[in-house]
UniProtKB/TrEMBL annotation:
Family: Belongs to the SusD family.
Name of the protein in its database record: Starch-binding associating with outer membrane
InterPro entries, alphabetized: SusD-like_N, SusD_RagB_dom, TPR-like_helical_dom_sf
Residue ranges of every copy of the RagB/SusD domain listed in the record: 345-510
Highest taxon, organism lineage: Bacteria
Subcellular location: Cell outer membrane
Amino acid sequence: MIKYFKIFALTALVGLSSCGEDFLTAYPTASQEAGGDATLGAIEANVASAYQILLFDSYADYQYNSIVLMSDLRSDDIFKGGGDAGDQAQLYRLSQLDATPLELPEGLWNIYYSGLSRANNAIIACLNAVDVSQDDLNRLSAEAHFLRAYYVHWLWKFWGNIPYFEEDLDAPFMAPQYTADQIYEELIEDLDYAIEGDKLPMSVDDADDGRVTKAAAMMLKARVVMYQQDESRYGEVLADMVEIINSGAYKLVDNYASIWVREGEFCDESIFEVNHLPEGKDWGAAWQGYGTNLPAFISPNELNGVDLLSGESDFVGGWGFGPVRPEIPSIFEDGDERLAASVNQFEDGTYTERFQNTGLFLAKYAAREGYNDAPYTVDLNYENNLRIFRYAETLLNAAELIAMHGVAPVGGITAQWCLDEVRKRALNNNFVSIPATEENIKLERRREFLGEGMRFWDLVRWGDTDVLTENIPEYSSVRTWEPYKKYLPIPQSEIDRTEGEFKLNQNPGY
């Protein structure tokens, strides 16, 4: 779908094609000198520049950085796969819970700090607005605060104790290191700003697909608060979920599989997603373009076969990373339509088996025929949109807060109703209501969001990390969970760049 980014992000004039070691610097546009007056056009250009970072979810900084894959590799849903253990060795280390300061997916660090810098620049522009209507200014400022929180929340989840800044930094471009708890408070401040006062619409019409909404800000706040296990704010988050539900702006679509194809982009249950286009990315251009590499990355190598679970024949081959673990089909009930929509299975001999092959592959973002007409560098330029927040998560958040954390129901919404809504769509004529217990809600989240990068973070916040310790020699996966592994080691290259009062301290355990 040629939507928001095609029109809006192309107006961003600065920082779209390059980024280097000075990514902590906020670059003003040509029409707004640093700290100077900002017209509506200058503000929009800065906000668009901040949005563009969303398009780097798969390849940027000359590395493969899909946030979905980077999140799921430490879970109990997938293996690393690829050519062998040494193929993208940093990802294998990530999956084995033994990343080191010298070998880890540090591209994420550069990408999301670039996002922080650009969001700062947009916020600064808003503060220096000239001849801009209050409504426009409110919306653009709220979008920028959301984007800053979105990028920083990933840095916070992966690394915890990180440098943070809100102003343009002078040479040598260093910032103080905050604790994870301090970063959490900064996230809440930005998200409350975006949510309060109706600066953002609850939803958008087709012309604005891809822009931040109030619902998106509420969903990000829910993820942040629930990951922090901040019980003092659980009531606020439940109220937000109920507001989204009662708004009528979103609903579950009838066919779960329809979410993941082109026609399902920006569907009725899509609260926020990234609009990829099949163009612009190249191996030698590390910070530009609109396509995604994720479909090629996770699809079986040299594929020539029909998916045995869905019967679909339009899938095409890729690199064979992220094979689904063999026990995953067994977590689904008979008749659950989410299995075939989430997992692909191909007959032996129809693809080239690679490292940790299970015969099962991630389906939601799988490479498909007709989803890539890029004239060059095809593997980097699939058009599959990345779904970030879906209405199903709203429902399951509410169910969890009420049933698992004891938050008093709001507005007549019950945990049982929320759980039943999700299951009715998934099971259709096979639907049977099951009690809204802790065990059932946790399992439903795993089924609903398989392959969407949520499982590991759920296990950590629930304290269910025992399942991450394993010894599976037949799949070359032997790993041990320790509490300090909640955070990755800070890249040694970043520590080496800092000095004096800004010297970065390594996370404990590394």
